[in-house]
Design brief:
Elements (H helix, E strand, L loop, with lengths): L2 H8 L8 H20 L4 H17 L6 H8 L2 H10 L43 E10 L9 E5 L20 E5 L5 E7 L4 E2 L5 H8 L5 E2 L2 E7 L6 E7 L18 E2 L2 E2 L2 H7 L3 E4 L2 E3 L2 H32 L1
Parallel strand pairs: 1-11, 1-12, 8-9
Antiparallel strand pairs: 1-4, 2-3, 2-7, 5-6, 7-8, 10-11
Helix pairs in contact: 1-2, 4-6
Bound molecules: fe (ii) ion.
GO molecular function: catechol 1,2-dioxygenase activity; ferric iron binding
Cofactor: Fe(3+)
Family: Belongs to the intradiol ring-cleavage dioxygenase family.
């Protein structure tokens, strides 16, 4: 069926559809029709796709989000994340804001609040202990007091606590607040590479693509402060070969870090073998919003241009 049929479907929207839903769903219809025509999708293949989507829902529950996993394997979450948080202009700042990275499916709200320097290890699960410290600043380099820093990572067996009946609730997760100088610190484990769950649709996609399921060893971060744009990111161990070959395409160069041997005083005081210094710069929320408005204006101009073009085409037919 031709473009005329696709236009007929897109033009079926009622008058109460919002401009945004008209644009997004209209665009989805256009792309999915083009995809179907270009690839000569058959009824059997379409039904396979329908069952694939059904399976994503059936496999998801409070401890597993298969929809996010499928998005990740397709590189979609990394793309959405980057374009949502990209700051188009530097706004006269002296440092770039720290890059964001995908949230992933294992975040939990309300992790235990610890004092700076305390450990997020509730139960010993092996691994190498590390002391992580740094400053949270704005992009002018000014310290941000009272910023909330949430961190979480998996155990050396590759499982997050909610996936693992052997770990207590909230093991290897914690919330910290920066002091008056923007300083935070905590003890965790040097992170471990792990496979994303691959016994469902996301794993099926990986097989079709002849790809491995491994994520490089990483620690997740969520940093929030009232006036600043919240940052969700991950830090990656430079020594891990998967840092160059992430199954979900989430690695950002400024978040690749070096765990070094802890110096004597820190090693003794915190009972750790390794140390990591990692500082984070947050962008002002108003700057991110200004940039977003500019992007929406550009999109609107493009949409108006395409609309006008299609109107002129139809009047000359
Ligand atoms: Fe993770």
């Amino acid at each position: 069926m031709s473009q005329e049929y696709t236009d007929f479907v897109i033009n079926s929207f009622g008058p109460k559809a919002t401009p945004r839903s008209r644009r997004i769903i209209g665009s989805l219809i256009q792309h999915i029709h083009d995809f179907t025509r270009e690839n000569y999708i058959t009824v059997d293949e379409w039904m396979y796709g329908v069952e694939f989507i059904n399976k994503i829902g059936q496999m998801s529950d409070s401890t597993r989000n298969e929809g996010i996993l499928v998005s990740d394997v397709l590189g979609l979450e990394a793309l959405v994340d980057t374009q949502t948080h990209a700051v188009a202009e530097r706004h006269g700042s002296s440092t770039a804001a720290t890059s964001s990275a995908i949230l992933g499916p294992f975040y939990r709200e309300n992790s235990p609040v610890y004092k700076n320097g305390e450990s997020i290890i509730i139960k010993e699960v092996g691994g190498v202990k590390a002391y992580v410290s740094g400053k949270i600043t704005n992009t002018q380099g000014e310290a941000l007091a009272g910023a909330m820093v949430e961190v979480w990572h998996c155990a050396p067996n590759g499982l997050y606590e909610q996936q693992d009946p052997e770990q207590p609730d909230f093991n290897l997760r914690g919330t910290f607040y920066t002091d008056k100088d923007g300083f935070y610190s905590f003890v965790c484990l040097e992170p471990t590479a792990y496979p994303i769950p691959y016994d469902g649709p996301a794993g099926g996609l990986l097989q079709f693509m002849d790809r491995h399921p491994m994520r490089p060893s990483h620690i997740h971060w969520r940093v929030t402060h009232p006036s600043y744009h919240s940052l969700i990111t991950q830090i990656y161990n430079r020594e891990d070969p998967y840092t160059e070959d992430d199954s979900v395409f989430a690695v950002k160069e400024d978040c690749v870090v070096d765990f070094i041997k802890a110096d004597g005083k820190i090693a003794e005081e915190h009972q750790v073998e390794k140390e990591l210094r990692f500082s984070v710069a947050l962008e002002l929320e108003e700057f991110v919003q200004q940039d977003r408005k500019k992007i929406y204006a550009q999109q609107k101009a493009l949409e108006d241009h395409l609309h006008e073009k299609s109107r002129l085409n139809s009047t000359t037919k």
